[in-house]
Amino acid sequence: MKYVWCLVLALWIGESGAQSRLNFGEAYPQGRTDLPKSKVPFQKPERKPKRNEVCVPERKGEAEYFLRTGWELAEAQKLTASGQSVFDLDLNTKNWYNATVPGTVLTTLVNEGVYPDPYWGLNNLAIPDSLCRTDWWYRLVFECPVEQIGKRCFIVLDGINYRAEIWLNGVKLGRMDGAFVQGKFDATGCMKTTGKNVLAVRILPPSNPGIPQEQNGMDHGNNGGVLCLDGPTFICTEGWDWIPGIRDRNIGLWQDVRLVFTGAVVLEDIRVMTDLPLPDTTRADLYAEIGLVNREAVAKRGKVELSVNDGVVTKDFVLEASAKQRLRFDPTEFAELRWRNPRLWWPNGYGNPCLYEAEVRVWVEDRVSDCRKIRFGVRELEYELTVDAEDREDVRILFNPQKAYAAGKPVIDNLKRRKVGNLYFPSLKTGLDAEGITVLGNDGTEPYLVVRVNGKRIFCKGGNWGMDDAMKRVARERMEPYMRLHREQGFNMIRNWTAESTEEVFYDLCDEYGILVFNDFSMSTEGINLLPADFNLLLENIRQIVVRHRNHPSIALWCPRNEGFAPGYLENGISDIIARLDGTRHYIGNSRTMNTIKSGPWQYTLPVNYFKMAAGFANEVGSPSLPTAESVRKMMAEEDLWPIGDVWYYHDWLMGKWGDSPLIQGYQNGINRQLGESSGVDEFCRKAQLLNYESYRAIFEGWNSKLFGSATGVLLWMSHPAWPSMVWQTYSWDYETPGAYFGAKKACEPLHVQWNPLSRKVEVVNASLREYKNLTAKVCIYDLKGKKLWEERGTVQSASNRMCEVFVLEEKANWPEVYFIRLELRAGKQLLSENFYWETTSRTARDFTVLNRLPVTRLTGRCRVREENGIVKARIIVENPTDKVALAVKLNVRDKDTGKAVLPAYFSDGYFTLLPFEKKEIGLEFTADGKNNRQITAEGYNVRLQELSDL
Asked: For residue 219, what pLDDT is reported?
């Protein structure tokens, strides 16, 4: 025993010693002289008067209600000082706040005019950091719905942060710990069926909220700090290099609160799985596991009814008093669960993301005791990996988790790993002949991860979401446009970085838009960021994440953390949870270097460099991406727009070193050197869009050039901004689509023609399941006046999931120093893909300042418009009636009266170039709003903002 205690003590000292060398963040707040400063004062909010709002439960389904109105919020210390009880129906709440639920504490305080909008200018500095060091009470007075009297009542909290005590009518129902758990509390015994009920939730903040470092012109600050000790929570809200410190750290009732009414037998977690006899996808078997709980002290007899795909199957049960039971529905028992020609769920670009809905009803004494609907997709995941077996190293396998995890035990050992160069290989816990393991030959993709869906390789393209919204305002209507923008770009994967975007609506939207999810859990970089202090709390949150969200077809990978391995205790716990409770997905032991490449670069670099570095599965590659001047104007006062200053720095114009090299300075220098110094914000942002377009296009085209050769996927750092940011993003927080968006969209089209500046070859990339025969690829070279200097054609046979080289483009002596490359890919006369580049013959500098001397061009346009199901759909003909080139043309929908852009608006192309007398058809969709004062405008590098057509 003495030896055991010595060993435990040694391990604790070793772990704590390692922690002591990590990033604890700031020890003291910055001095006033070090804080960023604006040329204008903070905005002054107008405090809204307290309103007497009545709770009106919002019915959802047969026996479920959202509680979204009537909530009030107050600091716990003020309530204590008043000497009143939060449970008193006569409590005077005139000094409370009308609370936004779902929503964080800060969301309420901003909505009620206590503090200004933290997203504008430096307003965030006007909000006290004490919000995250305060206990808060949420309070709701409500009545039980009359139609549910006599049933059991549960209060369900879908998500709180960081800890919560839940009380009803003075009775403590329970406690919740961590941002990602769901609380379901039986309130039957203390719910008043007549009269008013008082629901009170005490929110307790994290123990280690940390001290944010405010970004300034000297330094971008730390990435997090001691808040990592409190994981599972939103660790980035202490401040990261893409988000400032959020003053409440997103504590509060950030997800919905619901009333759920049932009979005696209640449904617990339900798991729906489908099995395809791959490679055959014309048949599918469906399995369901359904948990039951008897909430009464007498035995209950009944049946469970499963309805799905126009079929109904039932199973009887007997539940002893207060007992639990799991029922399994299996196609060997029910022929209705063996399907022919199922509609499959596919990632974006590979097919439609078809979804099914199953309904489960529990019948007791001829009445429905409980019911639930579950949405799922018919799809099967497999993974190509390089692993070590017991007697062999570097074995390429096809891993099918659904078969390999049949016994509910881990199969891949991430602790027993081997390092080769910068990469790690896990080992197998089973033999190579085990179920779910197939040995493959090498084909060039080794040792990198390849994701397969329904037996087909998926070239993963997309980006990281650091966080959905910095204040966790994640209503569907706010988040859906972002997800659609991902689909429109041709993306098929999002990485949920450190689980910051873990909520039902995120996965629902990924399901609907065909976006795979690479899902981290709540830990960040090994060797830099602190580990959570409570491993068991983290594991419980992970268990709930897996159980709550495992039916979503979009989730493709589980991962323990950002950039690192989990320590042994956590690794064993996580791998057990996934094998036992999911069993359909791969758990990758490290987001980087475990069958993937290292992270980065994050700085600006020349386009050709992405073709040099492209290899493997990359989950963090990025470049700064300044929004349009119009979006920048929404972030700050006119006085702070130019020259670049503190407000820019605070909004992630990141100064200082990034490792051994600068980040934003290299980007700014790239703009200035290639396109010249700017005299104002409009000119600077206009020039930035050219760099953004070609940089983000080049990232994906670099990986395209090695499609399933040595490259298997690439994810941007980042695709999505959590707030009004100046740095990594393909669109801005206001849904505007700058150069980065259309550059990425161009490169990610499923069938794509591109130019490789490293090999100087024209390439055709087919990242789809279709094959194309006898296509024609054409390249034309133009001078800056639009005069054609060269043309070449080639015939293309384009196989599925392949890149093929067409011909080499050799520079000719008569080409000018700066010239244009136009590529086209056609099937007969049908244009399938086109691309446009500006290039230089110089081998020493990319000097495109000559583009600044392009003559101003004016365009004409017309459009056909129709409205369908509340969506405006238009086809716009944009024409260049001049003998001049119109470079990088962008369209917008605008309000004719204000001139403001109407967002979101989904255009099929942007930053496109029109040669002399050329025209182009563009598709557009946006949500109808009943206004008839909309117009289409155009602007470009040498096109001043102009009206094209009314809508």
From this structure: 81
